[in-house]
Predict the 3D structure of the following.
Amino acid sequence: MTELRVPLTWRPSRLAGRLATVGTLAAAAGLILGRPELIVVAVPSLAVLAAGRRARPGELTITAGTPGDRYLEGDAVDVDVTIDPGPARGGVRAELALPATAWDGSGAVATAGRRRAAGRWSVRPTRWGRRSLGPVRLTAWGPSRLDVATREVILGRIDVHPPVAWARHLPLPPRLVQRVGLHAGRTAGAGVEFAGVRPYEPGDAVRRVHWPATARRGRLHLTRHAVERAADAVVVIDATTEVAGTLDLSVRGAAGVAQTYLAAGDRVGVVALGGIVRWLPPGTGARQLHRVVETVLDVRVDDSYVAPDLARLPRRALPPGALVVAFSPILDPGVAEIFRDLRERGHPTVVVDVLRSDPDPPPGTRAGPEAVRLWRLERGALRHELAAIGITVVPWGPDDDAIGLLDRISVRLNPQLAGGVR
Amino acid sequence: MNPLLAGAIAAVPGAGVVVVAGAHVPADARLWVWVAACGVAVAVHPALRWASSVALVAALIAVILRAGVSGLPLLAAAGIGILMLVYLIALDLAELVERIDGSTARLTLGWAEALAVPVAAGLGAGALALVVAAAPVSPSLPLALAGPVAVVSLAVIAMRSRPAR
């Protein structure tokens, strides 16, 4: 629970303004024109103004809390609010005015007199990121409602994570790490995935006899199982350029890919390329998921003249043989160089092109459409160049909120899977 | 509660002001009564309430001036003053409840608690003006002033001597 003490600065309320207007105008007109009737009209209003108690400086206390501080996009966030009016003895009104670009829903709580105001607001975040619970517009009235104070406060902050992704086939690097995992390796071992049969040799366990093969071949054969290994994956986010929401897509994709690999027991790391190169070494488990998501939520486009450089990364941020899934609009030549560098270091590299639209040609220019065509050809050439050195370039699909993206990458890396993936 | 509905309910005492003023105005000053009625009508909209108060009091001044040398009876003037106060207070209540979806009973109770003393003072001042108006004395400016000054002074003294809660 967060407790905020909000100092109040008083000014005349609307009621006081209206009473003063009526009373002053009528009394002044009565005095100037010598008409007692107008003075009599002004008397009740002026008497209320004179008899009303003035507000004293002080502060009200607002207590708010949410059940958690991490939510997924679209989750309901219940905010419990209690307001102790303090010197605001004429009443308090609090209105949650969340920005409609990132939130759905609103809330208000009001009280009059000296009572406490309490309520529960239910809102939904519609976009990932670190989101403020607010502003909350507070309006407090003095003891006789002749004074009013208004303030805006922020109740706290929550982390909104992108939605969870899923995939039927995870793209895997050719070399799995020497750690027990869920992926069938290429060598035989103590797994459960069927990897073939082989003749019996003295010392083999009899319970692994493959009876159909034994019956067909007339001598004992054993079942071979594939070893089960884990994979290393590093998600790279290109934060050097932001065009038409590409960074938003990159973060969504990166979070989704990381969640999927972590759910399969693999190690996942993050590298964010920008003026400041941020990195998170690969790790496993639910804690790593939170670390990954918090790292990607911190990614911003930095204005910097320093080109991103992998030489600044420690070795453990990019383990040898790790699969690299990069999200980039591929607009910065320096970033394309980094992808080449990654491939030359031996990392199987997949680049997800998050630029979904062509630039609009400048209106009124004849050369504009030609320039766009040239730009498109240059990008095509760059993609072919990357593909020629073994980098798989996958465009971000129209409905790809990371759902289906990994399946498409798997098909590109292993076309035999195409029959099972729509 | 819908803001327009709350404003319409709050405008009822304002309509009473117009009716009382209209009953005492000469025939050639009916136009100002209509101005006052329009002033009350626009108060239905939340953004026009202060303008409504100004229009209403300006129209009242015009009506009283056009009422002739004999002027508006003090009894009617005191009634208008009390109705005007009720109207302004009702507008405040409308602003309180117009954005609340649930029950307004608790809010209204708290609001009444906050405004009880000042409104009682205002109504008391209006009642005193009524008493003065009913007294068999000729209305004069000093007499009209004496009542309010006495009421305001008593109210201020009462407020200062009231212990803080």
Summary: The two ends of chain A are 47 Å apart (CA to CA). The helical segments of chain A are 14-33, 36-51, 211-217, 246-263, 285-297, 333-344, 368-388, 405-413. Chain A has a mean pLDDT of 84.
